[in-house]
Amino acid sequence: MINSKNKGSCGEREFCNYCKEQGYENVRRTAQYNGKELDSKADVVGLDGIHVEVKRVEKLNISHAMEQAIRDNAGQDIPIVAHRKNHEEWLITMRAEDWFKLYKIK
Question: Into how many domains does the chain fold?
């Protein structure tokens, strides 16, 4: 059984790979460069204007995860939680007000 830190790192790598499959080649984990980057508490960077919190767990308290994304973001970008369970697809959770901001852009 893999510990939660390793599972978190694995989930971040999985989400980065998923983003790259979608055409976002500059996406990477922040932890891969000597720990967290000084200017970001996001798990993943490279999606402009988006603060990414990644959760790769079977039981997720989405309210707590979203609170963490909002708190760590400090209001600079749109906070999202990218999450998935075993054998399921990636989901993105965000505040409705942020979703409408993105929807208006199109």
Answer: 1
- Residue 62 Ramachandran class (φ > 0 left, ψ -120 to 50 alpha, else beta): alpha
pTM for the complete prediction? Answer: 0.86
Averaged over successive runs of 10 residues, the pLDDT of the chain (106 residues) comes to: 71 97 96 56 95 96 97 91 97 97 83
**Structural domain of 8:** 4-105
CATH number at residue 95: 3.40.1350.10
